[in-house]
Design brief:
The complex is a heterodimer of chains A (about 375) and B (about 325). Chain A has helices at about 35-60, 75-80, 95-100, 105-115, 125, 140-150, 170-180, 210-215, 230-245, 275-280, 285-295, 300-325, 330-335, 340-355, and strands at about 90, 160-165, 185-190, 195, 200, 220-225, 250-255. With about 375 residues, chain A is α/β, with parallel strands linked by helices. Chain A folds into two domains: about 35-325, Thiamin diphosphate (ThDP)-binding fold, Pyr/PP domains (Rossmann fold), CATH 3.40.50; about 330-364. Chain A has a five-stranded parallel sheet, sandwiched between helices. A two-stranded antiparallel ribbon of chain A has the order 4-5. The radius of gyration of chain A is 22 Å and the shape is globular. Chain B is of the alpha/beta class and about 325 residues long. Helix content of chain B is about 35%, strand content about 20%. Chain B has twelve helices and 14 strands. In chain B, β10, α8 (about 215-225) and β11 form a beta-alpha-beta unit. In chain B, α1 packs parallel to α7 (about 150-165). The termini of chain B are far apart. Classes of the chains: A alpha/beta (about 375), B alpha/beta (about 325).
Chain lengths: ~375, ~325
């Protein structure tokens, strides 16, 4: 009896090489206009600028924390732009690029990390659920939402985001089972960025993550996570398949976390600079820039205007973050429950009275 | 229209009414469909409402709750059953970290009208993990409500009230009382709001506060005490979070004495909160310290010992006597 090979499988779907050469793939043809190509590049640049500005704001003490997406722009923009109105995305806490695609103002994200809110946007209005910090918790919720879509007869799908670390969570594996047996319209989008804080992929899995899907009874595929075209094409394909009733799929976007886990992390303690440098050559932005150039789809004015737009955005975030209003004390109480609650109301009244006792005192 | 019902069939009738009344209401859990639930509480519902609305799920409690959250986000009103008290800890993270907090963290934009049905408590000679009383964990968690009926009439109405509530509610079903019978008027309006306690027997000497499976025990204790001339007022809390302290304090202010009892361990249990609240509200009316009777600070014992673990009529009356002796 042959023993199955556990050797890493490094094949993946790639439509644009790191050098900016288009590759055809008959399974995942990409029908895309020049305008769409330019728009994708704009997304990548602006999302990276949001990330850089937020990181700087954290260093300046304006944010308590920031989870950087640096290096994962293509995975998030490719997946995010594959979603259509009526679809629903369930993010972790690093999906700033997907949030961008779903029309969530980056300033709202800064509020989360500044501590002015624990949510900030209407999930239904944006088709984008609230960030989830407990690893993997969003996956069963995504399946439940997809079951609701099925019941409604909606021709939409759910895309749920998680990482290589989360692939070890019980909730994630449970959600694979649920989606499989209920044939739910959900696409699992795993950004394998190689690191779960300090733990390498090898601590989470002995087989390529996309192959996990096969054991659960649905397709799994690996895509070059630094190739926005491949991420877009494969995501579109799997989402459409789910919308048409063909059930779940797992996409493993093979990418790399170029920054720290968060601004509190120090990756020099656990990984080599040379690894990071090797991945820098596969940068998700450079290859698109190179392609646009070579195809003469853009001129210098395009890049200049985009740079100016990025700077304007950064400036708005810089000033906007500092101006975000602190929530009122009352906010803590009013949304704890939807319906009247005697205990919370009493505690609020007591505390308001307590604070009123200090009225007229001058702040130190 | 009055029918004689067990508590199990009263909950079944309440679930049926909720399914009839709102197409967005659906049930999910293990063995609730074809089998009708291990206690037959959901008997016949899948047959009448279909597999889309009465869903037999994979055996994964965490995902039962996670899926319920997702369904609620989609506009559904899910009723999730966790088969036994001792299995709910698998779903604890989804309940505490997600379900309870979603409304607050979304600033009220996302409502979580999720009901978690949970058979709880001991007294049926069950094997390990089938006799627990986890109510304090949930009552302690902001964002959740905790409700428990003690009789078929309340069970019929309360299950519909908690399903109609836009907040997540842990609905604790006292499993050793599933077969208690009463006449239920299924066309009547709910007798009380969901979060109100009820004085189930009036008395002037001491207030006995309890809920769920212990209400019957306390009523039996009060009847026995009456033969000796002690008039015990018995209060069925019905809602453990929030607590209807007004009703309890009103009673204790008259009687001056208070005993609180439940199956769960008394250490940091619901009785501790009642005792603290009564002390704050009724300090100048108290003739005795508030006493607690409940389970011990031990894991639930093998069932051949459970009659020692569970407070019974005699232990309740012993505490009443001690309160009266001050």
């Amino acid at each position: 009896m042959a023993i199955p090979s556990h050797a890493p499988d490094d094949r993946f779907v790639q439509l644009l090489t790191p050098e900016g050469e288009r590759v055809d793939n008959s399974d995942f043809p990409l029908d895309i206009t020049d305008d769409e190509l330019r728009a994708l590049y704009r997304d990548l640049v602006l999302v990276r600028r949001v990330d850089a500005e937020a990181t700087a704001l954290q260093r300046q003490g304006e944010l308590g924390l920031w989870a950087q997406l640096l290096g994962q722009e293509a995975a998030q923009v490719g997946a995010g732009r594959a979603l259509i109105p009526g679809d629903m995305a369930f993010p972790t806490y690093r999906e700033h690029g997907v949030a961008w695609c779903r029309g969530v103002d980056p300033l709202t994200l800064l509020g989360l990390f500044r501590g002015t809110t624990n949510g900030g946007w209407d999930p239904e209005a944006h088709g984008f659920a609230l960030y989830t910090i407990v690893i993997g918790d969003q996956c069963p919720q995504a399946v439940g939402y997809a079951m609701g879509m099925q019941n409604d007869g909606a021709e939409n799908a759910v895309m749920v985001f998680f990482g290589d670390g989360a692939s070890s969570q019980g909730d994630v594996n449970e959600s694979f089972i649920w989606a499989s047996v209920f044939n739910s319209p959900v696409v699992f989008f795993c950004q394998n960025n190689q690191w779960a804080i300090s733990e390498p992929l090898e601590r989470q899995t002995k087989i390529p993550l996309f192959q996990r899907a096969w054991g659960f009874g649905f397709p799994g595929i690996r895509v070059d996570g630094n190739d926005v075209l491949a991420c877009l094409a494969v995501s579109r394909h799997m989402l459409q398949r789910a919308r048409e009733g063909a059930g779940p799929a797992l996409i493993e976007a093979f990418t790399y976390r170029m920054g720290a886990h968060t601004t509190s992390d120090d990756p020099t303690r656990y990984r080599l600079d040379s690894d990071v440098e090797a991945w820098r050559l596969r940068d998700p932005l450079e290859r698109v820039r190179s392609f646009l150039h070579k195809q003469q789809l853009v001129d210098d004015t395009f890049f200049d205007e985009l740079d100016a737009e990025a700077e304007q955005l950064a400036k708005r975030l810089r000033h906007g973050a500092r101006a975000l209003p602190n929530p009122g004390v009352d906010d803590m109480f009013v949304n704890a429950y939807s319906e009247p609650h005697t205990l919370v109301e009493r505690q609020r009244d007591d505390y308001v009275n307590y604070l009123a006792g200090f009225a007229g005192e001058v702040d130190a | 229209m009055t029918e004689t019902m067990t508590m199990a069939s009263a909950i079944n009738a309440g679930l049926r009414a909720a399914l009839d009344g709102d197409p967005k209401t659906l049930l999910l859990g293990e063995d609730i469909g074809r089998l009708g639930g291990v206690f037959r509480v959901t008997d016949g519902l899948q047959k009448d409402f279909g597999e889309q609305r009465v869903i037999d799920t994979p055996l994964a409690e965490s995902s039962i709750l996670g899926a319920a959250i997702g369904l609620a986000m989609r506009g559904y009103r899910p009723v999730a059953e966790v088969q036994f008290d001792g299995f709910v800890y698998v779903a604890f993270d989804q309940i505490v970290s997600q379900l309870a907090k979603m409304h607050a963290r979304s600033a009220g934009m996302v409502k979580m009208p999720v009901t978690v049905r949970l058979p709880y408590g001991g007294g049926i000679g069950a094997v390990e993990h089938h006799s627990e009383s986890p109510e304090a964990y949930f009552a302690h968690t902001a964002g959740l409500r905790v409700v428990t009926p003690s009789n078929p009439v309340d069970a019929f109405h309360l299950v519909q009230q908690v399903i109609a509530c836009d907040d997540p509610v842990i609905f604790l079903e006292p499993k050793r009382r599933y077969w208690d019978k009463a006449d239920v008027d299924v066309s009547a309006d709910p007798p009380l709001p969901m979060s109100s306690a009820r004085v189930v027997r009036q008395g002037s000497h001491v207030t006995l506060v309890t809920y769920g499976p212990m209400v019957r025990t306390c009523l039996e204790a009060a009847a026995a005490a009456a033969l000796d001339g002690s008039e015990i007022e018995v209060i069925d809390l019905r809602s453990l979070a929030p607590l209807d302290i007004e009703t309890v304090a009103g009673s204790v202010s008259r009687t001056g004495r208070c005993v609180v009892t439940h199956e769960a361990s008394v250490f940091l249990g619901v009785a501790a909160e009642v005792a603290a609240a009564v002390t704050e509200e009724c300090f100048y009316n108290l003739e005795a310290p508030v006493l607690r009777v409940g389970g011990f600070h031990t894991p639930y014992p093998p069932s051949r010992l459970e009659q020692h673990f569970l407070p019974d009529l005699d232990r309740v009356l012993d505490a009443v006597d001690r309160a009266m002796a001050y």
